[in-house]
Design goal:
The protein is globular. By secondary structure, it is α+β, with helices and mostly antiparallel strands. The chain has three helices and four strands. The chain starts with 10 loop residues before the first helix and ends in an 11-residue tail after the last helix.
C-alpha cells in the first residue's frame, strides 16, 4: 500500500496538477506532473466510470498504486503526479501496466539518475 504522505487526496491538488502541469500519454494512461515544493513526490490516480464497474476500476487503481509503490525510490522528489487510466488498460496484466507507467515516468524525466556504487 502506498503511504498517505505519497498520495494526492485533495481535489484541488488533482485539478491543479492536470490543468497547470505537463502531461504525457501513451495507449494505456496519461501522466500529468506539477512541482509541489515538498521533499517527496505525491501520486493520484483517476479511473473513469466509463472504464467499468467498481470492481474493474478498483483493480486498475490497485495495479497503478502497486507499480508506483515498487518504483517509488526511483522517482524524483518534489512533484505532484496524476495518472489517468485509459480504456485499453482494462483487462491488462501487471507487467503491461508496469511497462506503460515506467515509460511515462521516463518520458516525463521523473526517474532519478542511478547512483553509482562504490
Amino acid at each position: 500500500m502506498l503511504r498517505k504522505k505519497y498520495r494526492l487526496t485533495r481535489t484541488k491538488d488533482f485539478q491543479r496538477t492536470v490543468r497547470e502541469g505537463q502531461c504525457y500519454s501513451n495507449q494505456m494512461a496519461v501522466l500529468c506532473k506539477h512541482p509541489n515544493g515538498l521533499p517527496h513526490s505525491r501520486f493520484g490516480f483517476s479511473v473513469s466510470r466509463r472504464l467499468g464497474k467498481a470492481v474493474v476500476r478498483n483493480r486498475i487503481k490497485r495495479l497503478l498504486r502497486e507499480v508506483i509503490r515498487l518504483h517509488l525510490d526511483l522517482v524524483a522528489p518534489g512533484w505532484d503526479i496524476v495518472i489517468i487510466a485509459r480504456k485499453s488498460i482494462v483487462g491488462a496484466n501487471y507487467w503491461t501496466v508496469e511497462q506503460a507507467v515506467t515509460e511515462l515516468l521516463s518520458r516525463a524525466q521523473l526517474f532519478v539518475a542511478e547512483k553509482e556504487s562504490a
